[in-house]
Amino acid sequence: MPEESTTEENQPVSKMVTPLAPAATVELSLAFGIRSGVADGLQFADENLLAYPCGNYIVLRSTQPQEKLVQQNQLEQNEQQRFLPLGRQGQSRVTALTLSPNRRFAAVAEGVNTESDRVAISIVDLQSGRVKRQVTGGAADQLLAGADFASLAFSHDAKYLAGLLTGPSGCQLAYWQWSNNKLLACYSPSGGVVFSQVSFSPSDPSLVCLSGGSGGGLRVLRYADGQLRQAAATAGAGGVPNIRLDAAVSGAASRHCWLNESGLALGTATGRVIVLEGSERRADIDLLSGGGGGGGGGGGVRCLQPCSRGFAVSLEKSARVVLYERVDGAGAEAFVRSREIWIPEEASSDEPDAEPVAITDLCVSPGDDTLAVLTNRRQIFTFSLVSPLPEKDQVEEFEPLTDPSHNGPITGLDVCLQKPLVATCSTDRSVRVWNYETGRCAQRRRFADEAYSVALHPTGHQIAVGFVDKLRLMSLLADGLRTVKEFQIRGCKECAFSNGGHLLAAAHGNTVQVFNTLTYQCVANLKGHSGRVRCLAWRQGDIGLVTGGQEGAVYEWNLADPTGGRVWEHVTKTCAFTGLALAAETADGHGHGGGGGGSSSNVFAAGTDAATAGLREINPGGDIVRRSAVDAKDESGAVFTSLAASAGGRALFAVTSTGRMCSLPLPLGATSAGASRWLEWPGHAESAVRIRLTPGEDILATVGEDASLLIWRPTTPLRSHRDRPAWSDELLVPQPELDELRSRAEELRARAEEIRISAAHELRLQRAAHSEELRNLQAEMERREGEASVKQAALHTDRERVEAALMAQLEEARVEAERSLIEAGEVAEARLMREYEKLQAANASAQRMQSEYETRLAEEAAAAHAAMDRLAKDHSAQLAELRWRVELAETRRAEEAAKSAETIRLTEEDADAELLANKTAFEQRLQLERSSVAKARNDLAEARSRSKMADRLAEQRSTELSSVRADLERLRGVVEAARAEAAGLREEVAERGATIAELEHQAEQAAKTARKLESGNFVLERQLSETRAKLEPRERDVRTLRAQAEDTVAELRRLDAEKARLRLAADDLADRVASAEKAAAAEAARRRRTETALARLTADLHACAGFSQDPKRLRDCVIAMHRRHVDTAAMAPEMHMANEVETEFARQRRHQESTVAALKRKLKEQSQLLNKQYFRIMQENTGLLQQVRELNQELAKSRSETRTLQVAIGLHRKDNSEAKQLVAMVKSASRRDPLEELKGEEFQRLVESQRTAISQLRQQLQELQQTAPPDVDRTSEVEAVAGSVSLPPIQAAQ
């Protein structure tokens, strides 16, 4: 038995006995198709890298689509697709796949191994591509016998691995610590419950969730104390979510996903999604109803994946994915539908006979940027989740990442010579043509019957497909496949075009028929096999055809012989041949090594005979020349199923029934003692059925029963690049379609010619119409220019007249204001003199009263001393006198109170200036009287106390006479204290008087301001009314002028534009007329010259006609005539005329440009002039409007102050006639001097000094009243003084 070297799983295995030259090595370059039957077979290995199984590999494909792969640059191809080996090199089935959360490891679950009868899990490092660990089940009885893994899951820290096994006897959950291959616990549900999905909690590796399957529902398990137990419904400690499920929900759960540490989304078999967070049910969404976004499928939930803000869900037989997002504060329904993405309709319409497109798996990238789905047609679609939200009624669709592949075992394969095409057919009744340069499916078509075999024409323009009842020859067109010829061959399992493409060999049963692809005639009918023909191979030159049968016979047929006889034969009855390949010819005309004569090369044949070595080399004589010392059956019982040999004799390639790819060096070992070495690589997941080598020997294509197509590239060139054929870019187009395109092109040309002729005609008509319109517009423009000039002159005259009137009115207003100001000053000076005279009289009266007061004060002092002396003698008389004084004071107080009330009443009714002054004086007097009454009360109290004291003294006089003198002294002290108190009171009165004076001064200032405003109010009203009366017609004129100016400007601009256009057109017409006249004159001169020359030529011809019998003279005459009438210089006028036309055109263009520039300058100057005039009028209007606004503001302010003054003086009372008379006097005075009081700083200072003197005089008067004895009546004097002092009437405003 051969020895097997120990290598890594993803390295080729070398089987050898003796060392020879190494075989050719290959590497996987491209893979078409996706492996079915793998749970979670589509996942993201990175943000932009998808992982999915294909063949016996994990394909890492970029989500960035590339339209074309670079043929020679393997690095760029590897960036598009990378390959990691799956399982144990095709020895067992792969049933589940999962990636760790950190995207570093991939766990691949393998089915039951035929050797060990045990399942295993391979942990693959995604960075290095090596198998890091093989996880097995430990003891033989620990795992469920005869079960396969249905689901795998990594914990969030990637330390633990959970695998769910399902089999005929039930299901089992295995819990590993995979780094040391330690099986921690197993859990088998009771009652025959079978689950289909397992997952870890995103935060707790000891918490595992199971769902789905037959009667499985949902179950949460916890690993503790070496066992997996069902988690309690009320558990909430240690990070375990508090999940509460009712029986209906738990039993209906078919899919689930974790949203957070305590949240689960459950998909049910009835098409509902239930979101649980802890013990609360956050959402219950019915996907089959309209409210839940149903449609696009039916049945239960098929796919459910978490996103950053929610989850993505898809139903069974659905072509749509719905995204739900969490909404904060949404109450019980905390999730709302955010997006709805559909599979494009083109994915279903391209194969109408196939089953409807449905999503079978989906995944979301780690950054939640991309959503990828896998359909039942083994096609991957992607969608960018960061794209903007669609508008209303806009449908969002997936973008295809791959093309749909076969959905059943592939039965046929062939390659093309002139194009990078590979054709395949499958039991899914479809034929597909792949382009391995672009990595896309070029053509695909589904038929009603199953396709058994396929063959590509060397040109790539035709394809032959064998069906159950016929063989169809079809043209490979740009838009699909079209049947050209149908051959009545039933069950064609093998077919092949010749190297030249003119012959087609088709095998059905034990017969091979050869057809001419040009005439469609059968040129040979080869019969001789007793079993089914399983392989065909054409010789170089297409003369010989080698066939291999299931009965163990290999024949070569000579097609040059009309009888179609056999050249040689090789029969091994115990071997069924499965593949043929032709060896390269050597210099002696044979293949590798001797062993037979003839000019043909040897044939490599692969069969199932283990005893005689299944791989052998047969010479043209039918004898076995060499055999492979390596047994065709290895330890797994695999046999070679198909062969392909390089034309250069470098290597022989083969595929096996286990799906492996093999490479054998040539020549094979000559004897059994010498053995050759061959290499193998993991390829397909199931049996490989075909292998083909392109004519350029740079591509190997293999297909298998796993519905995958693998493209291999030799790492060492098998042929020079110069020998490789160049690709053809020709495409076949159907003749009806080509005729239709040509007819449409002719129609478009005819239509274009019609449009050109019509446009030329319309252009001529437009030119004529424009010329006429230009003349009319030019006349109209000249007329309007004259009218505009007249209007502009009239506007200018009106503007000057308005400006002169405004200036005259402004001058009159200024003179009137100055005159009013002078008159107001004179009136104010006269009033000031009157007030000054009154002030002098008040000062004289005050001095007189002061002297009298001092004299009386001295007398009162002396009388007080005398009274004190008399008091000691006769206290009874003094007491009576004091009582009389008290009564007198009370009577006086009552009288003074009545007088004060009367004074107040008169003051309120009087509105005159003197009445207002008396009101103030009486108020002050009232205050003085009140103070005097208070003082009298104090004196009365003091007198009563003295009376009591005198009574006590009288009672004690007999016993204490000496105490009288003491009391007298005490009374003197009291008098002195009273005097001191009176002095303090005088000082307080003086301070209060100053305060009152200040307040009066402020009141006078306010009254003065009010008077000024009142006086200016009427003036402003009058001026405002006059100004409005004057401005209204001016504003109307201004608006009229503005509208006229705007109309004029617009009209001028339009006229200027029309004038410029008309002038240009006129100049153009004039130039054309001049050019036409010149051309007519030139044409007339040319006609005259032509007539003259024609007459001369006629005469010369008549003369030459006489020499018709003399050839020599005739020749001389013709030469002379030629010299006279033909001149080379005569051909120049046309060029000269063209130069003149070009010069004239340039001159006319310069003239038009200068005219346009002059018109533009003139228009610009007129526009600037009109704009300046318009802006000046607008500025003047703005100034007038500003003055009107200011006058309105002053008027409103004056009215407000007037209303305040009217309320203060009581003008609103109906019976206040005096106040109304006062207002009338103020108005009459204000009419006499309305503006004079607005200025005059000297007048203001004089008034303020007079007010100060009056305040001082009033203060002295108050002091006199306070210091007067209570028995002296000074009321008349005070009234006289108050009557002599008059305050201004405006003081009532206080």
From TrEMBL:
Ranges: WD repeats: 403-444, 526-559, 681-712
Domain of life: Eukaryota
PANTHER family reported in the protein's UniProt record: CILIA- AND FLAGELLA-ASSOCIATED PROTEIN 57
Spans annotated as Disordered: 1265-1294
Listed SMART domains: WD40
InterPro entries the record matches: CFA-57, Quinoprotein_ADH-like_sf, WD40/YVTN_repeat-like_dom_sf, WD40_rpt
Signal peptide interval: none
Alphabetical keyword list: Coiled coil, WD repeat
Protein name: WD_REPEATS_REGION domain-containing protein
Coiled-coil spans in chain: 738-892, 926-1079, 1181-1208
Keyword match Coiled coil: yes
